[in-house]
């Protein structure tokens, strides 16, 4: 550990990229952020430009360091955290993507998933991967790209098929972490948490699964090497002649939700957190046991440190929460997200209105890729405030759906839930969440725990921090929200469940 040095974290999310610099106390020293464009080529399709993401990554790193007057040589390590499941392929020689990345929200492969279920393959996939087969995960996205991307034109008599080149190792597959790590270090690597979200990785054998690779026709030669989330052997270093002008170890990576689990110091079985971003993701550490879910949750890898056993987690993946607030802005019911609290407080209730934000289907515990966004209960007297409040309540109701499933699977009562992400700045939402779930909601001082978790992973790998247990001392409560004793929510929650049923199986051909 060096005095006067820091650890940096690249937090590459669904809507933008952030770089944060942390000190030994886990305090934020510098931060910079840039949005990237969302592409919607067809209904239900969502894509990102990987080159834009990489250029933005370089830009926010430079901006954050410049703003704090920190030279890159004072970074002891860099960690990476990323939007999970988003899938791309790139040319191994030119490092150019063969097409835009297909984002985790994308639903174009729903028919393929339904075919797997019809053919009786869903149980096998879930047993190997811990995942409920869904278009959310990377496998069917990878298959679609290999089937549909334009052949690469080479100095040969004919363009060569993408799958052929992938089988020769000339085209590489990755999630966004792999894309960034290769651009930073030149090495084709992913970590165990991101691998566990591809639906191609056996979380019990801890290896890419040949049966699944054959099912989705993804060549093993295209896949990255899988490493621990916090890796003492390093993923590599940045190029001294590159944009940073220094050799900095890249030593940690976690999918964004696992990074938040690590950043919230949920190191022990029974520790739980919920992150509110574009979607919401509720994770419960189950230790070295991969707990199978009977209630629509995912069994996933929580994290792994070098030389230590894998820590597993149960996860409830909610596809749309913060994105529901963004939608309110898109349709001009709000001028900005921060206005949502004031508008929601201007009415005493939703006046019977329920909004189910199933814009990209329903995740846990329902898993309905054909569900779509629905508003029920409107009357001539419905005002924008009722719809805004209904959107905020939908975030809390969806979390209760997952919390009840989590308690049933794990056999525990969740008395306290640590929360993070942009939406938890909304005090009204946090209190709603406490009332509707019936548990204390605990908000930390540093709510960007996704970036903090990847910084912790990288810093532990290089000895910047010595002991993960001591990291708990960095975690401080900003505010705690307790359920109102007079809050009557059970009846409204039952009506919410009815509204969910009305949203289901909507996106069918006429």
Automatic annotation (TrEMBL):
Binding-site residues, ATP: 14-15, 278, 322, 422
Annotated sn-glycerol 3-phosphate binding sites: 14, 84-85, 136, 256
PROSITE patterns from the UniProt entry: FGGY_KINASES_2
Domain Carbohydrate kinase FGGY N-terminal stretches: 6-263
Residue stretches making up the Carbohydrate kinase FGGY C-terminal domain: 273-461
Enzyme Commission numbers on file: 2.7.1.30
Keyword Transmembrane helix: no
Biological pathway: Polyol metabolism; glycerol degradation via glycerol kinase pathway; sn-glycerol 3-phosphate from glycerol: step 1/1
GO biological process: glycerol catabolic process; glycerol-3-phosphate metabolic process
UniProtKB keywords: ATP-binding, Glycerol metabolism, Kinase, Nucleotide-binding, Transferase
Gene Ontology CC: one annotated term: cytosol
Keyword Ligase attributed: no
GO MF entries: ATP binding; glycerol kinase activity
Reaction catalyzed: glycerol + ATP = sn-glycerol 3-phosphate + ADP + H(+)
Residues reported in the UniProt entry to bind ADP: 14, 18, 278, 322, 422, 426
Membrane-crossing residue ranges in chain numbering: none
Residues that, per the record, bind glycerol: 84-85, 136, 256-257
Family as reported in the entry's similarity comment: Belongs to the FGGY kinase family.
HAMAP family listed in its UniProt record: Glycerol_kin (MF_00186)
Function: Key enzyme in the regulation of glycerol uptake and metabolism. Catalyzes the phosphorylation of glycerol to yield sn-glycerol 3-phosphate.
The protein's name: Glycerol kinase
Species name: Halococcus morrhuae DSM 1307
């Amino acid at each position: 550990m060096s005095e006067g040095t820091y650890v940096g974290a690249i937090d590459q999310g669904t809507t933008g990229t952030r770089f944060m610099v942390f000190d030994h106390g886990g305090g934020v020293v510098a931060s910079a952020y840039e949005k990237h464009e969302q592409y919607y080529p067809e209904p239900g399709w969502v894509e990102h430009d990987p080159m834009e993401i990489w250029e933005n990554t370089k830009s926010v790193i430079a901006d954050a360091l410049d703003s704090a007057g920190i030279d890159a040589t004072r970074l002891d390590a860099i960690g990476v955290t990323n939007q999970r499941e988003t899938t791309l392929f790139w040319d191994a020689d030119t490092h150019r993507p063969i097409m835009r990345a297909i984002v985790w929200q994308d639903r174009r492969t729903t028919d393929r998933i339904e075919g797997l279920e019809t053919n009786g393959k869903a149980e096998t996939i879930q047993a190997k991967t811990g995942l409920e087969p869904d278009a959310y995960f990377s496998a069917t996205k990878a298959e679609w790209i290999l089937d549909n991307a334009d052949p690469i034109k080479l100095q040969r008599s004919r363009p060569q098929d993408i799958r052929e080149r992938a089988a020769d190792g000339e085209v590489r597959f990755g999630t966004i972490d792999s894309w960034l790590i290769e651009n930073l270090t030149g090495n084709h690597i992913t970590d165990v948490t991101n691998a566990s979200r591809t639906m191609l990785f056996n979380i019990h054998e801890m290896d890419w699964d040949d049966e699944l690779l054959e099912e989705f026709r993804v060549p093993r030669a295209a896949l990255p090497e899988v490493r621990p989330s916090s890796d003492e052997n390093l993923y590599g270093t940045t190029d001294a002649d590159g944009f940073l002008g220094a050799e900095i170890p890249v030593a940690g990576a976690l999918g964004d939700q696992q990074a938040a689990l690590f950043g919230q110091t949920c190191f022990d079985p029974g520790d739980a957190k919920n992150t509110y971003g574009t979607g919401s993701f509720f994770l419960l550490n189950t230790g070295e046991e991969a707990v199978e879910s009977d209630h629509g949750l995912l069994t996933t890898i929580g994290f792994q440190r070098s030389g230590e056993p894998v820590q597993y987690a149960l996860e409830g993946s909610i596809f749309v929460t913060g994105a529901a607030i963004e939608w309110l802005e898109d349709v001009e019911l709000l001028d900005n997200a921060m206005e949502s609290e004031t508008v929601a407080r201007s009415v005493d209730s939703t006046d019977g209105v329920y909004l189910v934000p199933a814009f990209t289907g329903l995740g846990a515990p329902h898993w309905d890729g054909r569900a779509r966004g629905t508003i029920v209960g409107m009357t001539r007297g419905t005002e924008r405030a009722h719809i805004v409040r209904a959107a905020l309540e939908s975030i809390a109701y969806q979390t209760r759906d997952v919390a009840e499933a989590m308690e049933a699977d794990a056999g525990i009562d969740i008395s306290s839930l640590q929360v993070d992400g942009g939406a938890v700045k909304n005090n009204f939402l946090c209190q709603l969440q406490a009332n509707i779930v019936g548990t204390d909601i605990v908000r930390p001082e540093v709510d960007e725990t996704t970036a903090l978790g990847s910084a912790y992973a990288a810093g532990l790998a290089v000895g910047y921090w010595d002991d993960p247990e001591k990291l708990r001392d960095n975690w401080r409560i900003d505010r705690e929200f307790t359920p109102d004793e007079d809050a009557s929510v059970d009846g409204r929650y039952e009506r919410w469940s009815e509204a969910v049923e009305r949203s289901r199986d909507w996106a069918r051909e006429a």
